[in-house]
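Subject: Sanity check before I submit

Could someone independently write out the structure tokens for this chain? I want to compare against mine line by line before I put it in a report. The sequence has 276 residues.
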Amino acid sequence: MGGLPKGLARRAFLASGLAMGAGLLPLRAAVAASEESDTSAQARDDAIQALPLPELTAETRRRLMAVCERPTLFRRMPQKSMACDPALHMFLIRNPEVVVNIWQLMGVATMTAERQGPYAWKGADGAGTICDIELVYGTDNVHIIYGDGYYEGALLKKKVTGRCVMVMKSGYGRGPDQRTYVANRLDLFLQIDNLAADVVTRTLSPWVGKVADANFHESCVFASKLSQTAEQNNPGVQRLAERLTKVEPAVREEFSKVAAAVPQRAAAKEGAAVRR
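---
Independent answer below. Compare away.
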């Protein structure tokens, strides 16, 4: 498992575990990534307009719009393009406790993620953030996550509650090297209760932006490295799966099966490219 990213221990759970990749409806995955985050009102309005509201329940629409229409902070993170097996990419988005457990085994994370239901988790980052998160919508190209929790730590003087909505868009394509690439873009809406505007501007906004961008980048790198390892050293990944003790047995078994098929899918794509 060499080459996986370091420095994940202080990353906030919401922005790392679930921002796993989950770009660009129909953008191509091989397109070069933008390097700058966008916090503009135009980007925020575009993100809201793109929400699949007719496909959501009335209660889910209410929760999402309560945050998206009145966010304390909005951030569209730079697009990231990476070589990654699409099925593994999808699995990691929908099973963040697997990612967290791997990081725990690597000794680079103190965060936790406990599954509470088919698409719900309780998470803690080990540095003061506790949250309940739910995957409220998911397709091959779009995942929407809703989170509700609080922060109580050294950054702020008092306990602060809030909610977030994350909209992850993904596009898939073949690169010049004939490998499959996944391009990801993440929109983050964060609503924080009872914080003065100057505290948000001076203290919170720069911190959230820096952490969120780093999390998103490192999570994408992690997914790509794990996919590469599954392709080149699948027995090692299978042994890793056996060591995942903080996930449900059914989830662990599914991870093993998805990872086991990565080399076959890669070989099939290479064969198809040669025949052309």
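---
OP: Matches mine. For the report I'm noting this point. The first strand starts at residue 73 and ends at 76.
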